[in-house]
Amino acid sequence: MPTYNQYLIPKTVHDALRVLAEYAPGSARLVAGGTDLLLDLRQGRHAPLEALVDVNSIPELQRFEVKDEKLYIGAAVPLNDVTESPMVIEHAQALSEATGLIGGPQVRNTATLGGNVGHALPAGDGTISLLSLDAKAEVASLEGTRQVPLIELYAGPGKSTLDPQRELIVGFELPTRKPGQASSFKRVMRPQGVALPILNMSMWLEREGDVIKDVRIAIGPAGRTPQRGIKTEDVMRGQVLEDVLVEKALKTLLEEVSLRTSKLRGSKEYRTHLTSVLLRDVVACAWERAGEELKVVK
Q: What is the CB neighbour count within 10 angstroms for residue 47?
């Protein structure tokens, strides 16, 4: 039984959206890397489609640059390119670390950041790092484009707020790194062969001497959608980095996230322990990097 009837390759964002609108709801889907969708189709977890709409030939989705103090990454840029990019390593190191852990080399050669976010899983490695980096998604429809804070794209596990018949993610915009700023991503996963995060965490911070001037923390899976540690950030912001502060931050973080026992990801108690380990690791790493000299990468 065929998994789709037509394979279409539009050359512009407008053409891709127009093609989608021509099909009945749910009968056409966008594809770039296709590492999730094509597997679901072949294994029967997704109903056969009338059309796949390949967006890899659209220039805006391949755009990758630093401009006007913003790092822009097109939604169809392969994850390996994101991981190895000097621009990303300098301005968004947490993202480079996160994308470098997704799947294996062959998957990363085709999978995309747009697909990682669009799949809307609460533990997506790319998502967690982007969330700590204050990323915004550029979303297009036939009415125009809009900037959307990343967290607003998530409605629940595997459920995006985007309309798959009317909208597509064009790319992501992140603030470039300034002196005294840095980020870090860490995760613990199941044994090799089961590419499933038990828990992952990302942090961006800005230091001023011994003080955490500003900070953002993201963690997953710790609820139905990716989570920001807003209350934990409030505890840490403006404070001197010392052991007692990290302990206070950990207590607050455990109060504001929803860890539970999972057959696939481990017990609540184990994941609570990992939260402590990961928080200490990302704080220490981001803090050290924030003290390093900033390079100029374009």
A: 10
Say yes or no: 128 and 221 in one domain. Answer: no
Q: Which domain holds residue 94?
A: 59-175
Q: Residue 255 in contact with residue 234, Cβ under 8 Å? A: no
Q: From residue 113, give the alpha-carbon distance in Å to each of 96, 126, 154, 284.
A: 11, 7, 15, 27
Q: Report the share of the chain in percent with pLDDT over 90.
A: 77
Domain-embedded: residue 296:
no
> Which secondary-structure segment (H or E) carries 201?
strand 197-208
Mean pLDDT across the chain = 92
**Distance (Å, whole) CA 197 – CA 185:** 12
From its phi and psi, is residue 163 left (phi > 0), alpha (psi between -120 and 50) or beta? beta
Among the listed ranges 13-22, 28-37, 79-88, which one has the minimum average pLDDT value? 28-37
95 and 73 co-located in one domain: yes
Indicate if 140 and 210 belong to the same structural domain: no
pLDDT digits (tens, 9 = 90+) for 97-109: 999 998 888 889 9
The DSSP 8-state label assigned to residue 151 in this structure reads: G
Whether 116 contacts 128, CB under 8 Å: no
pLDDT at position 192 over 70: no
Identify whether the C-beta of residue 233 lies closer than 8 Å to the C-beta of residue 217: yes
Using an 8 Å Cβ cutoff, are 196 and 125 in contact? no
- pLDDT(8) > 60: yes
Q: What is the pTM (predicted TM-score) of this model?
A: 0.93
pLDDT at 46: 83
159 domain-assigned: yes
Q: List residues bridging with 159 in a β-sheet.
A: 156
Q: Is residue 262 part of a domain?
A: yes
pLDDT for res 194 = 56
Q: Tell me the C-alpha distance between 222 and 255, whole Å.
A: 11
Q: Which residues contact 144 (CB under 8 A, 6 or more apart)?
A: none
> What is the β-pairing status of strands 64-67 and 70-74?
antiparallel
Rounded Cα gap, residues 18 and 36, in angstroms: 24
